[in-house]
Amino acid sequence: METTTRPDIPPGTLYMLILKTLARLDSMHGYGIAQHIQKTSEDVLAVEEGSLYPALQRMLVKGWVEAEWGQSENNRRARYYRLTRQGRAQLSRELRAFDRVMSAITRVIEAV
I want to staple 78 with a disulfide (CB 3.0 to 4.6 A). Which of 2, 41, 68, 72 is the partner? Predict the structure, then answer.
């Protein structure tokens, strides 16, 4: 019986995935961000708590996101994150860098 494992999120793309999720959906708590990424990727990508929350904390320090406490859908206290202007600018940089790397990888794969 073959076991199916999820591939790791490529290094350097977690910030981009979080920033893009917040750009699309405005304010979200960490669990919601992780669920959105997993659902949108059709269960290929899973963001583990051990990666997500440290990344969000670093993004707060960098000024890419801001956070405030609120109530989640199930009446639990949750920290909601929102993209800042600096975060939008960083998202643009992240997307350009990702496109550049993907183009390079494609050229190598398709080289004759």
Answer: 72
Q: Residue 32, by phi and psi: left (phi above 0), alpha (psi -120 to 50) or beta?
A: alpha
What distance in Å separates the CA atoms of residue 79 and residue 33, rounded to the nearest whole number? 11
Residues sharing a CB contact under 8 Å with residue 53, sequence separation 6 or more, in sequence order: 30
In total, the chain counts a number of residues equal to 112
| Percent of the chain topping pLDDT 90 | 79
Beta-carbon contacts of 80 under 8 Å, excluding residues fewer than 6 positions away, are 27, 28, 29, 67, 68, 69, 70
Average pLDDT over residues 9-28: 90
Q: Are 19 and 90 in contact (CB under 8 A)?
A: yes
For the chain, the structural domain boundaries read 14-110
Q: Which of 33, 14, 11, 12 is nearest to 22 (CA)?
A: 33
Rounded to an integer, the average pLDDT of 72-87 is 93
